[in-house]
Amino acid sequence: MKISKQDTYTLNNGVKMPVIGFGVYKIPEEQMKETIDAALDSGYRHFDTAAFYDNEKALGDALKETNVSREELFITTKVWNDDLGYEETLRAFETSLEKLQMDYLDLYLIHWPIEGKYTDAWRALEKLYEDGKVRAIGVSNFHSQHLEEVFRIATVKPMVDQLEYHPQLAQKEMKIFCDEHDIQMEAWAPLKRGVFFDEPVIQELVKKYGKTPAQIVLRWDLQTGVSTIPKSVTPERIQQNIDIFDFELTAEDMNQLDTLDTNNRLGKDPDDFSFDD
C-alpha cells in the first residue's frame, strides 16, 4: 500500500482531503505559532480546530504569518453544541470564519449529535455548502442512527465522520457503515494520549520496524483507510508523527493490532452522553 504525505482521500463530492492532518485541541495561544510552523515544516497541510477549542483565532494568526498559500491548506472547524440550529449554526460559522481570517473553509463539521438540534444544523451546513462558503461538510461523533436521521432530511450527503478511533476503539461497524455510504472516516485521539503504547503487540512492532509506538498506530490508521489528525506541541514528535510513509505493516501485523480492540474510549460515547455534567 504505497502512500505519501502528499496523498489524499477523495470525498464523495470530489474534494481531496489529506490522508494526515494536525489537530490543535488544547494548544495554548502562546504556543500556536511555533507549533504550526513546526507542523508546516514537517509537511502537514490539513489543520483541524473547533469553536469549542477556543483557538481558531490563534490558528488563523499563525497561518497568516507563513508563506504557505491558502490553496495549499485544508482547514477544518466544527460548530459547538450551544450553536446548533439553523440560524444559530449559520452565525457560528461566520464567527469561526472571521476568527480564522479566511474567505472559506475546506471542511465544516457538527461537533456532537445533540438530539433535536443536529438536523436543523445540517440544513445550515447544506446552505453554507451550496453558497460556496465551505468545500465539504460532515459530522463528528455521529453513529449510524444519527447519520440515518441526517439522511432522512439531507439533500447533500455528509462527506466525513470524525470519530474517536485507535486500536482500542476500532469502530468496525461504523467503518463498514461509512464505507457503504461513501463517507470518509477520520480519527480523533488516534494515539489515545499514549495510554496503550506499552501493549506487548505494539512494543514488538516497535522493535520490528524501528518506529515509535505513535508511528505504528498512525500507520495502522492509514492502512485501514482512515484519515488521521495527531496532535503534539513537541517539534520532534510533530515530525515523527508524519514520518509514517517509509514502511508498511503486514497483514499479519495489522491483524495483531486489531486484537487490541476492547471498545475502550478516551472520550464520551455519542450514544450515551451529556454535557450538563
TrEMBL record:
InterPro entries associated with the record: AKR, Aldo/ket_reductase_CS, NAD(P)_OxRdtase_dom_sf, NADP_OxRdtase_dom
Assigned keywords, A-Z: Oxidoreductase
Active site (catalytic residues): 53 (proton donor)
Q: Which SUPFAM superfamilies match?
A: NAD(P)-linked oxidoreductase (SSF51430)
**What are the residue positions of the site described as Lowers pKa of active site Tyr?**
78
- Residues annotated to bind substrate: 111
One function term, GO molecular function aspect: oxidoreductase activity
NADP-dependent oxidoreductase domain sequence ranges: 26-260
Q: Which domain of life is it from?
A: Bacteria
Family the entry assigns: Belongs to the aldo/keto reductase family.
Name under which the protein is recorded:
Aldo/keto reductase
Q: What is the organism field in this record? A: Salinicoccus halodurans
